[in-house]
């Protein structure tokens, strides 16, 4: 278990730790962001935050901000972990997961949805135009098309080539999470590295506080590369990959979704903050809970990112390499390395 000193040292080492992830990494996290503000997972969160900032800086609603922000990596053809050009599942299908939640506790999500490039916007339509929370698979695609979203081929040449390369050595044997370097299918060393790690990271999780102090969150991903067809991760599960509560703050996660779902990760972080923990302490406790129940999870990556209503931010991961982007009126391109438990 990491102690406070360990965390401080990891934080101090942060910029060096993540220097390989991006040259733009800055100093350790500020004590708090000023409102309005937005934070998101990974270095591609910088561009997403700036799209969210365009909404927030004009006095816009946090919900509109997180939707606008999440759409940036969804549209990015160089990003193989979110939206268009996402890596496919074992059978070559690009299946997308997303969820969104507002300050009133309204939420919507889609899981395993194919052929629609902006799952975050479909999730918002589920929230606003249906009595439901979660639509899956073909039903989600059908709903999206009824709502006017274009039907597209999401697998691009680069992603297909990577999948075909993986197929050469894949054995399609489901394996335990503890087999490092494989994800879901034994036999092949994962060409993408540690599941959820630096080179196999997916998912943008985003949390925004608007000028009124209202919070919303969004989470969108193509999930783990080469997953079993039909596998759903944490990102579209409210309370796992995303949770916000306007009395407290919000949390989101990235990494191996199974471990997050098992521990109701984002809900846990928010509830710990409700009980008085700082966002940082809450993220550390949630990671610690995963490792306590399942020590083998040390070989996987899970990262939590959280913010409370005062704009205080926290982040913590099982392994080093998790970065997160911060944006407020002072600085719109902040990027920090999270500390880690191992
Ligand atoms: C999932 N949490 O589908 C997502 C993937 C991810 O870094 O974030 N990987 O489990």
What does this structure look like?
- The chain has a domain at 37-246 and 324-332.
- Strands 4-3-2-6-5-1-11-12 form an eight-stranded mixed sheet. A five-stranded mixed sheet has the order 7-8-9-10-13.
- It has 342 residues and is an alpha+beta fold.
- It has ten helices and 13 strands.
- 57% of the residues are buried.
- The N and C termini lie close together (8 Å).
- N-hydroxy-L-asparagine binds at residues 196, 201-203, 221, 223-224, 233-235, 254-257.
Could you provide a short overview of the structure?
By secondary structure, this protein is an alpha+beta fold. The chain is 30% helix and 20% strand.
SSE layout:
Layout: H1 4-12, H2 14-17, E1 37-41, H3 45-56, H4 62-75, E2 96-101, E3 107-113, H5 119-129, E4 134-136, H6 137-146, H7 157-169, E5 204-209, E6 215-221, E7 242-245, E8 249-255, H8 257-262, H9 265-274, H10 279-293, E9 302-308, E10 313-317, E11 323-328, E12 334-337, E13 339-340
Parallel strand pairs: 3-4, 10-13
Antiparallel strand pairs: 1-5, 1-11, 2-3, 2-6, 5-6, 7-8, 8-9, 9-10, 11-12
Helix pairs in contact: 3-4, 4-5, 9-10
Q: Which key features would you list for this structure?
A:
single chain, 342 residues, eight-stranded mixed sheet, five-stranded mixed sheet, 13 strands, globular, binds N-hydroxy-L-asparagine
What's the rounded overall pLDDT mean?
85
The bound ligands are: N-hydroxy-L-asparagine
What is the overall shape?
globular
* Strand proportion: 15-25%
Number of helices: 10
Distance between the amino and carboxyl termini: 8 Å
Poorly predicted residue ranges: 1-27, 175-195
Strand order of the largest sheet: 4-3-2-6-5-1-11-12
- Helicity, in percent? 25-40%
What's the total count of β strands?
13
Query: Structural class of the secondary structure composition?
Result: alpha+beta
| Largest sheet features | 8 strands, mixed
Gyration radius, to the nearest Å?
18 Å
- Give the helices and strands as they follow along the chain: HHEHHEEHEHHEEEEHHHEEEEE
């Amino acid at each position: 278990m990491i102690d406070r000193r360990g965390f401080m040292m990891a934080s101090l080492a942060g910029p060096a730790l993540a220097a390989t992830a991006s040259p733009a990494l800055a100093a350790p996290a500020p004590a708090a962001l000023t409102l309005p503000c937005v934070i998101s997972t990974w270095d591609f969160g910088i561009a997403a935050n700036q799209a969210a900032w365009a909404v927030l800086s004009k006095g816009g609603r946090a919900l509109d901000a997180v939707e606008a922000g999440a759409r940036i990596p969804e549209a990015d053809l160089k990003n193989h972990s979110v939206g268009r050009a996402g890596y496919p599942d074992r059978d070559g299908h690009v299946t997308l997961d997303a969820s969104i939640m507002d300050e009133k506790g309204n939420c919507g999500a889609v899981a395993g949805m194919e052929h629609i490039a902006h799952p975050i916007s479909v999730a918002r339509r589920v929230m606003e135009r249906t009595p439901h929370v979660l639509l899956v698979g073909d039903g989600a695609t059908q709903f999206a098309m009824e709502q006017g979203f274009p039907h597209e081929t999401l697998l691009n040449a680069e992603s297909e080539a990577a999948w075909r390369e993986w197929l050469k050595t894949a054995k399609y044997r489901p394996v335990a999470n503890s087999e490092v370097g494989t994800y879901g299918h034994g036999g092949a060393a994962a060409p993408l590295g540690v599941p959820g790690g630096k080179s196999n990271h997916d998912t943008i999780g985003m949390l925004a506080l608007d000028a009124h102090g209202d919070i919303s969150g969004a989470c969108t991903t193509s999930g783990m590369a080469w997953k079993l067809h039909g596998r759903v991760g944490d990102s579209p599960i409210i309370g796992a990959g995303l949770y916000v509560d306007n009395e407290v703050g919000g949390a989101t996660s990235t990494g191996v979704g199974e471990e997050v779902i098992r521990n109701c990760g984002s809900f846990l972080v928010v509830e710990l903050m409700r009980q008085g923990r700082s966002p940082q302490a809450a993220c550390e406790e949630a990671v610690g809970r995963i490792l306590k129940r399942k020590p083998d999870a040390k070989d996987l990556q899970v990262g939590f990112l959280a913010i409370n209503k005062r704009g205080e931010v926290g982040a913590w991961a099982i392994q080093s390499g998790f970065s997160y982007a911060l944006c407020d009126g002072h600085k719109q391109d902040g990027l920090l390395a999270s500390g880690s438990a191992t």
